From TrEMBL:
Organism ancestry: Bacteria, Bacillati, Bacillota, Bacilli, Bacillales
Source organism (scientific name): Lederbergia wuyishanensis
Protein name: Two-component system sensor histidine kinase YesM
Pfam families hit by this protein: HAMP, His_kinase
SMART domains found in the cross-reference section: HAMP (SM00304)
Enzyme Commission (EC) number: 2.7.13.3
Residue span, HAMP domain: 309-361
Superkingdom, taxonomy of origin: Bacteria
Example GO molecular function: protein histidine kinase activity
Coiled coil: none
Length: 582
């Protein structure tokens, strides 16, 4: 925070905007709120009260009618003759079948005639491959339709089930030979025309509409020309209280909507009226509305211009400055002569640019110096144990006068020391780095050819030309020989493999040594991960620091237990977007 002198308070953007707001906006808003709320709210609330009463009455009547139909449905569900047909059809003679069919059709017709809301009553009996209907008499069993009915019943808890364009009440009767499958299904199809007609009686105004919505099935029934558009908007807010009034914006017109909910039926009934219909009683205030609209436009223009000039334009300049900073351009300060909050921010922004340039320059140089120093340190760490063993091998080969192997060994040894001591470019291709690592293992193979075997997986072609720091693989292999494989009484095994996933390249070095416990591996991994802490610079930590400094977060060495039961070291390198350049 910064202190603003009392004599400069009038220069602040906040005070200027506050004064403009009070002078221009507040009187108009107060006038508009008074006129609008007094008239519109009264009309809107009165319409909503009457509408919600109508909607609740409609749902109560519909629920009573559905309950009556369900009573008839469950009455026939327990019918002994129907159960007899489903279970004993094969053993019934033709006369008994005819009597039962006649009885059942008469029963279905009687149920259909008990309510104008029933369009048809059907019983689907899979055991006899028959469907009995009050309208269509006896039909062949439709297996596709039957499976669709079962899927609808099992997929919802709603009492009214929507199947295509039809609405039905369905119930199942279990107890057949097949466990878990219904003996028969009773389906009462509702009369959509009668339901829609009753729903349409709620539309008092010519441009209004009403629709039924289920959480499980979406739209059930709808009346009114704009129902389809309003239903889509309503489905996103179908949850909430059992009753509500809301203004819904559909395309270019607003609608006043009222809702009622029936927990028993699981249905919402919604009535909508164009907002213009609600506003019609307010036409006598049209002159005041025009005055209010004109005053509001003037206020918006004045306020918008003031906000743009005092706030938006200075903020845009600040945003553009930060965008330039993100792009790496730190040489363009922001010029601003006004003595307000933005002047303070711009001054601090310009000071930040200067400090950032200094810090970046210093950090970049320090990073380069650190990488160079660590590489020099690693190059200087020629293992005397390895050097002694190399001379010992030469001595042994000289004693047996194996000139061919002496020539091969001295050539490999020369290539090895030339690679680790050269002071040229710090980065090499991954192919060169792996070639050097293989050279090292071939030298070691002269000592341990019968006791230690090495397997290098083939380096993928797309990874060969990736630029990596020198000496990141061979020191890890050397560490495996010195601390694990050389000490093993049994046959040792070392494997080097490669993997590329997205922009991450992994070089995995693992052995079958058993000298390290899980706790020791965890401690060593933690020690490597803490690269910012002061600690002894060993070879493996040196490699991790160079990789992490070069490639950033997510790169470095990661230790774990190998599937070979030894140590697994993963060299992880995160590529840049260019592809092969890290």
């Amino acid at each position: 925070m910064f202190n603003i002198p009392a004599n400069s308070l009038h220069k602040t953007i906040f005070v200027r905007l506050l004064v403009i707001y009070i002078i221009v906006i507040l009187p108009i808003i107060l006038l508009g709120i008074y006129l609008y709320n007094w008239s519109y709210n009264n009309a809107s609330q009165e319409i909503s009260r009457n509408t919600i009463v109508q909607l609740n009455t409609y749902l109560e009547d519909l629920n009573r009618e559905i309950e009556w139909i369900e009573i008839q449905q469950f009455d026939i569900l327990a019918d002994k003759e129907l159960q007899k047909m489903a279970l004993a059809w094969e053993v019934m003679d033709n006369y008994e079948k005819k009597i039962s069919i006649t009885y059942l059709l008469h029963r279905l017709t009687s149920i259909k005639n008990t309510s104008p809301f029933i369009k048809d009553v059907s019983i689907h009996i899979p055991s006899i491959d028959k469907t009995f209907s009050a309208t269509n008499s006896v039909q062949e069993f439709n297996h596709v339709r039957y499976e669709s009915i079962l899927a609808c019943i099992q997929g919802t808890k709603s009492r009214i089930i929507k199947q295509g364009d039809s609405l039905s009440l369905m119930t199942l009767m279990f107890g057949g030979w097949e466990v878990g499958k219904p003996l028969f299904v009773i389906q009462i199809e509702l009369n959509n025309d009668r339901l829609r007609g009753d729903l349409d009686t709620l539309n008092i105004y010519s441009e209004s509409g009403t629709f039924l919505i289920s959480k499980d099935w979406g739209e059930i029934l709808a009346t009114g020309e704009e129902s389809s558009n309003i239903i889509q908007s309503f489905l996103s807010v179908v949850k909430g209280s059992s009753e509500f009034t809301e203004i819904m914006d559909v395309e270019v017109e607003n609608y006043h909507t009222d809702k009622a909910h029936s927990e028993e039926l699981g249905l919402f009934v919604v009535k909508f009226i164009p907002e213009e219909m609600v506003r019609r009683p307010l036409n006598k205030f049209s002159k005041w509305a025009w005055v209010f609209a004109f005053a509001s436009i003037v206020a918006i223009v004045i306020y918008s211009y003031s906000t743009y000039k005092l706030v938006h334009r200075p903020l845009l300049r600040l945003v553009e400055g930060f965008k330039r900073m993100e792009g790496g351009d730190l040489n363009i300060p922001i010029v601003h002569k006004k003595e307000d909050e933005f002047g303070f921010i711009y001054d601090r922004y310009n000071n930040m640019l200067i400090k950032l340039k200094k810090l970046i320059d210093r950090d970049y140089k320090l990073k380069l110096m650190m990488q160079e120093a660590e590489l020099k340190q690693l190059q200087s760490q020629i293992n005397p144990h390895f050097l002694y063993n190399s001379f010992f091998i030469l001595n042994s080969l000289a004693k047996i006068e194996d000139i061919e192997r002496i020539e091969l060994f001295t050539k490999m040894l020369g290539e090895y020391f030339r690679f680790i001591t050269r002071n040229g470019e710090s980065n090499v291709t991954l192919m060169e780095e792996i070639k050097h690592a293989r050279m090292y293992t071939e030298i070691q193979n002269l000592r341990f050819s019968r006791r230690i075997s090495v397997l290098f997986d083939e380096l993928p072609k797309e990874l060969e030309l990736i630029k990596v720091p020198r000496l990141i693989v061979q020191p890890i292999i050397e560490n495996a020989y010195e601390h694990s494989l050389e000490k093993m009484p049994d046959e040792g095994f070392l494997r080097v493999s490669f993997e590329k996933r997205g922009d991450i390249v992994s070089i995995v070095v693992e052995d079958n040594g058993d000298t390290l416990s899980d706790e020791e591996i965890h401690k060593l991994g933690s020690r490597i991960a803490n690269i910012n802490e002061l600690q002894e610079m060993t070879g493996i930590i040196n490699i991790h620091r160079r990789i992490a400094l070069t490639y950033g977060e997510g790169s470095g060495l990661f230790l774990s237990r190998s599937t070979l039961n030894g140590l697994k070291v993963t060299i992880r390198i995160k590529l840049k977007e260019e592809g092969n350049d890290v």
